[in-house]
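Technical appendix A lists one of the benchmark inputs used to test multi-chain prediction within the project. The record comprises two sequence entries:
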Amino acid sequence: MTALSRRGLLTGTGALIVSAPMRGHAQTPPAVPLDTKDLPGSLKQTPYLDAWIRIDTDGTITVFTGKAELGQGIKTALLQVAAEELSVRVDRPILVTADTARTPNEGYTAGSHSMQDSGTAIRFAAAEVRQILLNEATTIFQLPVGQLRLDNGAVVAPDGRRLNYGALIPPGILHVVARPGTQLKTPGSYTVVSTNVPRVDIPAKVTGGQAYVQDMRLPGMLHARVVRPPHPGARLTALDTSAAAVMPGVVQVVQNGSFVAVVAQKEFQAIRAMRALAARAQWQAAEQALPKQGDVFAYLTGLPAQDITVLDSRHPQAGTAKTLRARYTRAYQMHGSIGPSCAVAQLQDGVMTVWTHTQGVYPDRAAIAELLNLPPAQVRCIHVEGSGCYGHNGADDAAADAALIARAVPGQPIRLQWMREQENGWEPLGPAMVSEVAAALDAKGRIVDWDYAVWSNTHSTRPGSAGSLLAGQLVAKPFAPPPPKPIPMPEGGGDRNSIPIYTLPSARVIYHFIPQMPLRVSAMRGLGGYMNVFSIESFMDELALAAGADPVAFRLTHLNDERAKAVVTRAAEGFGWGHAKPPAGHGHGFAFARYKNLAAYCAVAAEVSVKQETGQARLVRAVAAVDAGQIVNPDGLRNQVEGAILQSASWTLYESATFDAAGVTSLDWASYPIMRFNAVPDSVEVHLIDRPGTPFLGAGECGQGPAAAAVANAVADATGKRLRDLPLTGDKVKAAIGV
Amino acid sequence: MILNVNGQQRNVDVDPDTPLLYVLRGELGLNGAKYGCGLGQCGACTVLVDNRAVFSCVTPVVALQGRRIVTVEGLGSTDNPGPLQHAFIEEQAAQCGYCTAGMIVRAEGLLRRNNEPTDAEIRAAMQPNLCRCGTQVRILRAVRRAAVVIRTQAEAQG
């Protein structure tokens, strides 16, 4: 079923645009009635039922989502939600994911929002469609609803009469605005939701099926490579194309200002020609040198900042017994997708179609349309899976590169993939950050005052405009990057999770937002939440130590939210917290956060070992507990949290992007080491606390912060030394323990 | 040039120094081996050559005439998955899955020479391959699960 739908996406080029019905969310949306603001999830923005669920007369059920599969299992989870409320088997509906010609505009697939936004919309839309079907059936059967039963796409009367859903749907009946207050099924009746439905995309991925945009092969497709400047800001002054132009298979060299690309019949021919072009290109260096890597935190905090008061409930305290202060830092880090960014683009009949692993087909379309000076209606962006992205990597830029190249070779599909060094050298990094915190304890060891400040660049330079795209910045008439903006709370950017979730009588949180970006940065899984939770949860352990309290008990003392307490308690119990001392050279650490203070709750207990000779720490085992509201797919949720823990442990123990005066120098996996199998934990356990019937709480990023802090706290427990500068590499640990 | 890929003789017309990866993907239409780094550092491109795992991104095709090349497509299909493929599905040992085909082939190379590997041997064998989504704990489980199946089959065949 998914293979079919994907084939449809891949081969449907122009025809689908023509045949796709106009929907409420298309170019000129009809006036949306005012009361949609009370509708759940993305129904607020896209209230028409048939934007989400379509039932054809032959009984085919199609579900539409504006969200994209990024490897997080969203296809499977959304199919489960739809199938449950439609009372059909999970393999029955066809799912269409993010496509500007077919699906709702749900912005970016980011921020752990997919289940909250799209899942909720599909859940309520499907429930309402089920009720519409039942109502139709009551008229036809002349029976009350209570006597009718649903059976995998049919309504069945007690006498055995059956009506297929397709026969129950008069044309246009689903083209109605969703009503508020639709009754969902009761969790006790679930047969699909809350079960471990296997991921629909995995069979193709383990057998070499066509699973990624990298695997697309359109008739007549040509291969392209871009030639990037030697470093950001450099401008092309001369390009000798003579050698490349006559190389085997070369079709065309594309140049537009400092944007250079080559198109060839075969992929490796394009790579060879790319190298030949690069060798004969002359560039004028950028005017400004980057700060020294070792000085970057002082440099950043010295830049002009916009000071945002995130929270201020501070008042003078009496009876302060102890005051502690700490400063934490986080290096620039990379998304580091295993597959470099890729896109396929084709200009045909005036329409530019781009197959892309972008997280946001609509914003990417807007940016590409501006870049190409086309009306958005003449650009179609279709999401096709790529390698996992973990935020804003090169996907959007590659899509724009492919479109710019395809415009120069009209009619021909162009497949562009970046090289590893291009991905590492040009992807927007996770921003370097600094935090400073001071807190006071009273004589009973309770926190009575908290003062926190965080410094960061923006956490989103995502497109929406051409100036956000590398190609837009390189073309002869470049587009100015839009001024960076902070992401407002409650979600926040650099200040995400900067408000402690603990009950504190007096607290202040200031976000020093730094507009000027020495290196290109943007959203990386968890945004500022990774650093803020690392800082807050490291400091909670420092405070617990000063108060002479057990770290878990200290947290529970300061928590009022019962769901938070339940998660902390479950993780501690699962780990056996406090039952036994860690072996020599090992340490235990604990941390907790609720992602964005409004999504999933996650607590992590970790055991690390530290090698005396090298200082290298290893995560030995982790036990997590998660409350993500109503769970749709328990194993899918576990997989996400396990992955979050391993990825965060890798960031925390190994990862920093290196750079010199010109640009990023960590251009491969040797210069940017990440966790390998020898360091993989012996076990990772994820305990789920299901909350049937409650709203979905986004969980895809909930583990990043708690895992980092749990590892750091375990390193402190193992070594007796507190490390506050991410990553906690062997060199730093070794220097701290002085061996 | 003639290559033996997944048990079939395939005639390909490419420059002899083209890395095998581009021949598999571009000439033979195989998706399993992936471009990840082009440097032999990540393992996404892993294939077997005479039962040994190699990085197809840095292996010139000229070196491979007369040798048996196996990609993940040669280990089974969605309808009839091989033991490792089946184990990866059972363990749901993927997120984005871009590294998965390379992981499976790397593990196949191990289990062909040692169908009773210790955990340390599995880790050592898998060391060249990177996963960025953090599914390695599941991958290790899947390899152990497949090893049991392969051993059981071998014993049944006596």
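Residues 72 and 83 of chain B are 12 Å apart (CA to CA). Chain B has a mean pLDDT of 97. Comparable benchmark entries are summarised in Table A2.
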